[in-house]
């Protein structure tokens, strides 16, 4: 078996080398020196800075209007500073051709924003949007107590450098390490030690927020799909398992149905947790062990109580953002009708509405990763502490429970220490593949050349003492919004597999042999891929609505033409639409059908590299549009001649079209045209777009509250029934395992399990 695995790995490595010679984009990027990689990553920000700094920013459109009015002779220059006042007539129109202004100073730069012009949008839209963006949950990994309290000392740094020196000497026969160079060997000094850990943590969160801006459609798809599967699971499974007395309204107690209902609730809660075999093992134990009903109930209580409160996290920024929208509406419809700056401020406020919706939807039922990790770790500890009656420190004799215990030990200690624990406690097990792998690893470490490492593992094992779980390294993480469609699908697949007859139900079915965990494949069928793609397209609609409404307002701001701002919104809509198509395609290409000896073709690998490169490009492109496009608007870079004349007429003049110089542009503020578009387009579009998004948020919040109520369940409030169910139950029938169910674990004990999760009692 080992030889077969080695040959297969050699074939895969040879195929990768052959593919790298074909000049794949990713392989080429990996070989580029570090400065070129930095330039590729920063090309869009550098372009934005150059566009802001290079042109002249002393242009004054008001002065240009007065010069054109003097040259015209029929319009007074005093109207060039006109503003809307109720009861005053609109200002006269002042049209000028492109050829009459092309040589004016106004076309040699841009008009920088005054303090009022950049403070107003910053306070009204940008800062509230940043607050909402920072509150959107990103992928979060639970931190164990050992990782949390660990501090790297200077002695450990020297030991790491010495180990790297020995490794280099063993490979190259040279005791001197090479000097660090561009694109060369890895650095010997880890600069992360010089920077506080919370800075690196914020860096990871910032990357998650930027990915949401790069692909908001997939974030919507993740939240919507999670909600849809929750509703499906509740209506299809949970409602059938929960039965209530018609006269009293109290739940009818059935240990089997109650346990399955609690596992269904856990699957609903775990939809935003990344599916792995270790995390599903905890639910497998709760579902398969008949004595885990109190533990399952307490786990649901902890996870429900550990969710982020919507009022504290979202309501206040949303209220502030809505207040800014009301202020902008008042300006556009009453106090500053027809003002161009007000119109663009409304457009950008509508453009950011999708961030508001994502923040509300993502925070209605967000779980903290540390809470999930602590609760699941306690479940696994219950699993490994199951023992035969009268022998509390021995593995349970039932083969399937023993198989669960082996996998639980490996989940709690994923390194060689876990293999050593399995090797010591399950020496007689010959059915578990995990135990066989652990014996193979420990046998390899027992060789003379690995004596030092083996002694170190033995010392770690002795240090565990009577409380081994204080050094457990169980890990789980919440998934990012863009991946929740896949993870919720995997949890649904796990639940459907676990509910099959005789799959993992240990005590109630009396299974005599070990049965592995439910097989969950990550690949998508053709129908599932089509549903995924359709869901992505439907989820992009809110982004398209916000971009379309913002582009409509910018387009109808005189001059009525395709300008820099409207094109910015259209390009962002196009870029995000491309991203929602690339994500399912890339996932389908990477997760090929899982069958034995399957080798992806070179064309599939090449397509993966192409789609990955396109995804990276459009991600940077979308981030550039929404960040630097906002900066250009606030700084005043969009107040230039090209944007005012219109991109179409500017392009015609640039290519030398003979009719380009005759294009007319409106230079006078507060004209009849400004007031007309303000009342006919700006205000109605703002009201309708806000109504659509608020309705979307209210419907989603209502459905989330309904799901949360179903997950909490009425039986949690029935103390009498709960106490009756928590009494010890002993089953002793033919074909079943004799066990005793103890009272459930306290919530405070589960919440504090990250630091000291050892329990004085155990199942017997």
TrEMBL record:
Q: Compositionally biased, Polar residues: which spans?
A: 749-764
UniProt key word Cell wall biogenesis/degradation: no
User: Is the NAD keyword given for this protein?
Assistant: no
Keywords annotated in UniProt: Membrane, Transmembrane, Transmembrane helix
Q: Where is this region: Disordered?
A: 147-167, 717-764
Annotated TM spans? 34-54, 122-140, 310-330, 342-362, 537-557, 569-586, 606-628, 681-702
Give the superkingdom in one word: Eukaryota
Name by which UniProt lists this protein: Uncharacterized protein
Species = Ascodesmis nigricans
